[in-house]
Amino acid sequence: MDTRVSGQPFATVADVQNFTGTPDVSDACILVVDDIELNRLLIQVHLIEEGFRQIHFAVDGADALDKIKRLHPDLVILDLLMPKVDGFEVLERLSDMSLPHSPAVIVQTALSEQDERVRVFEMGATDLVTKPITPVELKARTRLHLENRFLLHGLRSYHERLNRDLLLARQMQEGLLPTAHQLDIIEARYGVRLQHAYVSSDELGGDFWGVQEIDDDRLFFHITDFAGHGITAALNTFRLHSTLMQQDHSMKSPANYLAQLNKHLCRLLNPGQFATMLCGVIDIRQNSITYASAASTTPLLGQLSTGNIQCGDPSGVPLGVIEDAVYEDRSLPFLPGHMLFLYSDALTESPDKDGVALMDEGLQSLMTNALRSQDGRNGKVEFLDDLMAAFDARVPRPLPDDLTAVSFQRL
Amino acid sequence: MDTRVSGQPFATVADVQNFTGTPDVSDACILVVDDIELNRLLIQVHLIEEGFRQIHFAVDGADALDKIKRLHPDLVILDLLMPKVDGFEVLERLSDMSLPHSPAVIVQTALSEQDERVRVFEMGATDLVTKPITPVELKARTRLHLENRFLLHGLRSYHERLNRDLLLARQMQEGLLPTAHQLDIIEARYGVRLQHAYVSSDELGGDFWGVQEIDDDRLFFHITDFAGHGITAALNTFRLHSTLMQQDHSMKSPANYLAQLNKHLCRLLNPGQFATMLCGVIDIRQNSITYASAASTTPLLGQLSTGNIQCGDPSGVPLGVIEDAVYEDRSLPFLPGHMLFLYSDALTESPDKDGVALMDEGLQSLMTNALRSQDGRNGKVEFLDDLMAAFDARVPRPLPDDLTAVSFQRL
Amino acid sequence: MHYEINNGGESLQATLSEKITFSDHDIFREMISTMLNDQTAQQVIDLSAVDFIDSAGLGMLLLARDEISKTNKTLVLKAPQGQVKRMFDVARFDTMFTIEH
Amino acid sequence: MHYEINNGGESLQATLSEKITFSDHDIFREMISTMLNDQTAQQVIDLSAVDFIDSAGLGMLLLARDEISKTNKTLVLKAPQGQVKRMFDVARFDTMFTIEH
């Protein structure tokens, strides 16, 4: 069975470590352009001494351009004064060619005129060495420019792969959230309008939220935040999401639900990892919200007309820390005109340009303003947009942590 | 409330993009060392023209060393011939100081002697410019070396953070696998010895496997592989692991189990994402294995004494693609002396140094050899170690995909 | 992986060669978007010159199936050989694709 | 975050100041390993000079709790103030730690 498989398509930890060291450039392809054979030989000797193995030659500018096209050299050591096509013309044509990986060009010149040297740089040369060539200088510059190019090239492709992977992971993470279609159905069925905002501090985050229909009168909801962010937090959101997908959401007691989840997470999470969560049931027949909290943020219940705010109680042991943790069912009223607001701690803890965070008090005053500025015509309330705009005006990006905010408006 | 919070501790997509562009070096700290005031002023003018804003001066070598210690400059432009401490001594002392972030040094010299230029490079100068200084050259070299340093510095700290995050994620992923303690318990209770090997191609992978006790006679097992690898594959392993943790493993039919999981994964996975899985039940009373497969690798059942191998049937629709997929229960005998071998496709598909992969046939002959070379004394069979050693001798690292291998030996 | 697209009037045929693996994601996506932009009703991926496919490669074909199923076109996989055919058998691709041998 | 460790004979006290956030992971771990290497039975983390803690900071304290619980030492958190005290109240740290006010 003779099946050939292509090599490593992905970046490894070893790759990453390579980037912080010095890349091996001995296999770099170098093109030496000089019309005088002795000069080409001398340069070759210096480059071989320095450990380079792939050295090619061109005898004039026309030959150089031809070989650049064919060999795709990493570096060209270019003489200026040559018959037929000279070095200046090579530089000019090179910049016209706009190759995807155009070579670095070290110009060797006997010209000591300021103007000529300026012109060489302006025409796109990477560097220049003065004739007669000092071997140590030629070697140092050749090595320097090649190492730069190799480093950048490896770096760029590593980051391209990584970015693609992170982008995909992020799309997967967005896929955990309720869709606009689901929210429309919920609004029509329960008269509860949900709006949400998400600002990522990072490629991947530890925040998510969800909502699920229980029966004709009741909606289950939760907002969850894994400590930290980045890949590890994201891994945890995925495992919790799968767990939630399989839980029975018909329960009467959010506190029991949290206690169950907590037991499950205690088996899964590493020490020091935990989640904060607030979950609850909106009951439109009872005009109430029953909720339980595991160290979440303070749930805020606002009144559209007055801007009055009632604070819920967020206290409770975080999930995944102690196995026998117990939680408490609490309740809030939920009548037409009420707005329940849930958010991750980035909203209250992100610093503004002076390093000052909103904290609970600041958020409540933003919320009061946002509630009061709604005229409520046709039920078109832009509460969340207004609140987030006030936050944006105050707090610069990037945020130190992911931000999730969800509002539940009883129509 | 005046609570100041520290800024962004984590790398963002924007950071990554920055590394592939050109870093802004205008805020770099540059120290110009020259005993002649006019020279210092001229260099200052050039640097200001080039947009640099933090330019400091030293009037001799002693002053230079003092300011390097205090200011931690990114770059030093160093004259050689100075009263008291000269440039050579500055270079020497600088390399003795071994600063954590020692500055780049561009030496300016009127010396045109080859030996002196060689000496300057050997003493650790990054580059040199010839006096009288060509402004365009000075500017180009200053910019070049600073951009290099900034790029590398940003890169290094980005990769440190990323590596830490990936390392933690990888530990979490290892935490999904059965522990040595669990395997000991299973061996004692069922007379089934499990050994396993894992080789990562990457920071994070899409492979995992598990085993779980059902009752006195029966063990549940699975081996699962998400297509692709990297962060996205890892996210999927975590969500599947959580799902498995909550499934009822007491079922009689592995085929039904796969059908159930498939439905669940169809709701979770993005198009093009899928998992292959083989799961089954070992029954030590019935001396049999019942299994079902969703496009997994061929399960191999070997006989320790003879080296004979019986191939199972791995065919079945991959998980997460079509919602109403059905699977088939199949069986294999499992008597003392039998060895069940499961593995991810990296074992058969990874290329050796000639680019040739083992494929099914090659693996079977390695397995036969490994089975025959066990003498079975005291039940100390090193089947998996021997098989992996034969694989290692043949296939170079890094592998193109993660490799998981698990053997189940009936004692 | 390499590919060539020919429009035979009644059907659009993409002829693939070499291997389809994890690293061919971009070129495969490029091929799919060319196929999606074409209005021919029957779209064929000829695999007769492909000598290896890995699980990521199977994923790309499933992605193609998903994308083309959203249009009014049909997708046919043609003439898988050797290892590719065995992978199709193992993953029961006959239950998900129209395969022409 | 900054810290200072003093051994008072009967107890080892780490006095923390400023903020404990996501970016202090390394310095915090360093402090914990110093504490673990010390044989004093009672280990105190004095928080009176800490003016802010985020959820990552709470995680570090939970990690310290976990590590120290594996030894025969006891851990006391001392004098949380302001925002730190409020975070402790919300996360019910009194049920997980000995807190000395």
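qc> Chain D has one domain: 2-100.
qc> done
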